[in-house]
Amino acid sequence: MRCLISALVASICLCISSFALASDATVEELRRIESRGLASLKPALIEELLSAPAPRHAGVQFSRSWLDAQPAAKGGSEWQCLSEALYFEARGETIKGQFAVAEVILNRVKSARFPGSVCGVINQGTGKRYQCQFTYTCDGKKEVIHEPKAYKRVGKVARAMLDGKVAPLTSGATHYHTTAVNPRWSKTYTRTTKIGVHIFYRHTYRTASN
Questions:
Q1: CATH of the domain at 101
Q2: Residue 57 and which of 32, 93, 96, 159 are 20 to 30 A apart at CA?
Q3: Can you point out the beta strands (E) in the chain?
Q4: Does 68 lie in the same domain as 14?
Q5: Separate counts of helices (H) and strands (E) for the chain
Q6: Which strand (E) or helix (H) includes residue 42?
Q7: Do residues 46 and 142 share a domain?
Q8: 36 and 116 inside one domain
Q9: Which helix or strand (DSSP H or E) is residue 190 part of?
Q10: What's the mean pLDDT in 115-125?
Q11: 104 by DSSP, 3-state: which?
Q12: 3 state SS of 129
């Protein structure tokens, strides 16, 4: 990225030099040309290119010991919705499996096929018995957290995912099911991977990252 801005600046300088050689341009004219060229670069782009890149996907380990060592997580409604979904949908999964389920939810948020928020994705279809996207939201049972330690862990998973600290695991998957079932819809989607007891899929002709 830094090479890109160097190339842009070099191009501007080259144009100025060429203009100066091909004409009797004054110093003031050259300054105006330079100013216009630099002004064409968006300030936000310049700031991004010149600032030190933020470390991402560094140090994340899919282990309970690593997760337990992370600071207590907290957040707003989006974090709470994601934490609850992970607790009721994937608390018995491996740590990597929990991250993968969270990724599916965030992939849906990015996709035009689904609501544009974490809570919207999770609660899509809620109120219609067994017609929702996540069973725990429409199975008629009261959502009660009986395992606070497990909830604390999935809260950390949710925080890391919302903060973009984890590299993609599912190749854009927007659907999953456990290995114990074989739903009809799985035949119409592209299988991307298997993590823990879940198999992941994406739309055959478009992924959430497109």
A1: 1.10.10.2520
A2: 93
A3: 175-178, 190-195, 198-202
A4: no
A5: 8, 3
A6: none
A7: no
A8: no
A9: strand 190-195
A10: 92
A11: helix
A12: coil
